[in-house]
Amino acid sequence: MIKEKSRIVLALGGNALQANPKEISAEAQIETAKETAKSIADLIEAGHEVILAHGNGPQVGQLVATYEAAAQENPSLPIMPFPECGAMSQGYIGYHLQQAIRDELAKRKVDRSVAAIITQVVVDEKDEGFKNPTKPVGSFFTKEEAEVLIKEKGYVMKEDAGRGWRRVVASPIPIDVVEAPIIKTIVDAGHIVITVGGGGVPVVNRNGELIGVPAVIDKDFASEKIAEILNADYLIILTAVEKVAINFNKPNQKELDKITAAEAKQYIEEGHFAPGSMLPKVNAALKFVESKPGRAALITSLEKAMDGIQGKTGTMIIG
Ligand SMILES: Nc1ncnc2c1ncn2[C@@H]1O[C@H](COP(=O)(O)OP(=O)(O)O)[C@@H](O)[C@H]1O
Ligand SMILES: NC(=O)OP(=O)(O)O
User: Fold this and answer.
1) Which residues form the Aspartate/glutamate/uridylate kinase domain (predicted)?
2) Closest ligand 1 atom number to CA of residue 219
3) 226 and 114 in one domain?
4) Which amino acid residue places its CA nearest to atom 2 of ligand 2?
5) Which pLDDT score is estimated for 258?
6) Taking the model in full, what pTM does it have?
7) Domain-located, residue 71
8) 17 and 161, same structural domain?
9) Helix/strand/coil (H, E, C) string of the chain?
10) 198 CB less than 6 Å from ligand 2?
11) Is the CB–ligand 2 distance for residue 120 below 6 Å?
12) For the segment 112-153, what is each residue's pLDDT rounded down to a tens digit?
C-alpha cells in the first residue's frame, strides 16, 4: 500500500504506448496513449505527485531503420544518428502523452499543466555497455529474418524474452540527468513532467561539452536516476505483466507479491529475470530501494496501477 500524496516516478513500458507491438503508427499510439492517460489521471486525482518516464525501444528502432531504408533508396538522404532519433522519439511520444493526459485531466476538471521535456542523460564513454550491446530496439523478427539482417546490415540481433529476434544496441548506465534542475522546479511548482523519455538522449561530457552517443539508455534505469534526484517516495514500473515471476513461463512459475532487496538479489543470481526485459526493471527497483531507507518500488501492469498502489496486486520491492 502506497502512502497518500506520495511523489511517484512512473516508468511506462511499451504497452502504455502500443496496445499491439506490431502496430506502431502514430494513430495507434495516440489511441493507446488515451487509455494510458486514464490510469495516470487516476493517480493524479488521488493526490499523488506524478513524474512520468517512458520507453522508446520500438519507436527509436523504427526511426533509425526508416532513415537507413530511405538512404539506401536515395543515397543523397542522410542517415539519422541514434541520439537524434532518440530525441525525435522523445518529442513525438512526449507530445502524444502530454496531449492525452491534458485532455483526460480537462475532462475530469483537474487543472494541471503537463509538459514533456527533451532530456539528456550523461553516460560514461568507457561504459562496458558500448562493448556489449544489450538493448532491444525496433520490430521483432523470426530467426531466419534476423540472420539476413546480421549478414546484410551488420546488426547485432538477439532473442528477446521468447518473443522473437530484435536488433540490440549499446545501453550504458545513466550517470546524471542534465535537465534535472529545471525538472525539479516544474515538479515542485505542482506541474506534471514527462522526462527521460526512452531513457534520455545519451550524451558524454567531453571537457564541458555534451556530445550525443549512439546508444539507447534503459528507461527503467533512467527513471530510477530521476527518482533519486527528485527524492521520490516510490518508483513504479508499469509493464505488460501484473507481477514479476520466478521460473517465468515454466510449469512451476510463481508470481511474487512482496520481496526484500536481499530476495531480489538472490532471484537475480539464480537467473529468473530475462536480460533486456524484466532484469533491468528488477535491478532498477533494487537500486532505488537501496538508495535511501524507506524507499519502495512497485512493478505491475498499467491496467492494475491503481490496484497496485492500493496494495492489492503487483510486486513490491522493499529495502
Ligand atoms: N521473470 C519474469 N517475470 C515476469 N515477466 C518477465 C520475466 N522475465 C521476462 N519477462 C517478460 O518481460 C516483459 C517486460 O519487459 P518489456 O516488455 O521489455 O518491458 P516494457 O514494458 O518496459 O516494454 C514481460 O511482459 C514478460 O514478457
Ligand atoms: N529506452 C527504453 O528502455 O525503451 P523500452 O522500454 O521501450 O525498451
Assistant:
1) 7-292
2) 22
3) yes
4) 55
5) 96
6) 0.94
7) no
8) no
9) CCCCCCEEEEEECHHHCCCCCCCCCHHHHHHHHHHHHHHHHHHHHCCCEEEEEECCHHHHHHHHHHHHHHHHHCCCCCCCCHHHHHHHHHHHHHHHHHHHHHHHHHHCCCCCCEEECCCEEECCCCCHHHCCCCEEEEEEECHHHHHHHHHHHCCCEEECCCCCEEEEECCCCCCEECCHHHHHHHHHCCCEEECCHHHCEEEEEECCEEEECCCCCCHHHHHHHHHHHCCCCEEEEEECCCCCEECCCCCCCEECCEEEHHHHHHHHHCCCCCCCCHHHHHHHHHHHHHHCCCCEEEEEECCCHHHHHCCCCCEEEEC
10) yes
11) no
12) 999 999 999 999 999 999 999 988 888 889 999 999 999 988
Distance 211 CA to ligand 1 centre (A): 32
What is the domain range of residue 240?
7-57+86-123+173-318
Exactly one of 129, 198, 200, 219 is catalytic; name it: 219
ipTM of this complex:
0.98
Q: Decide if 14 is catalytic.
A: yes
Residue 252 lies in a domain: yes
The residues near 220 (Cβ < 8 Å, ≥ 6 apart) are 11, 237, 280, 281, 283, 284
Q: What does the pLDDT read at residue 182?
A: 97
90 CB within 6 A, ligand 2: no
Answer whether 215's CB lies under 8 Å from 169's CB. Answer: yes
Question: What are the tens digits of pLDDT across the range 227-255?
Answer: 999 999 999 999 999 999 999 999 999 99
- Residue 231 annotated among the catalytic residues of the structure: no
Ligand that lies nearest to the alpha carbon of residue 220, given by its number in the listed order: 2
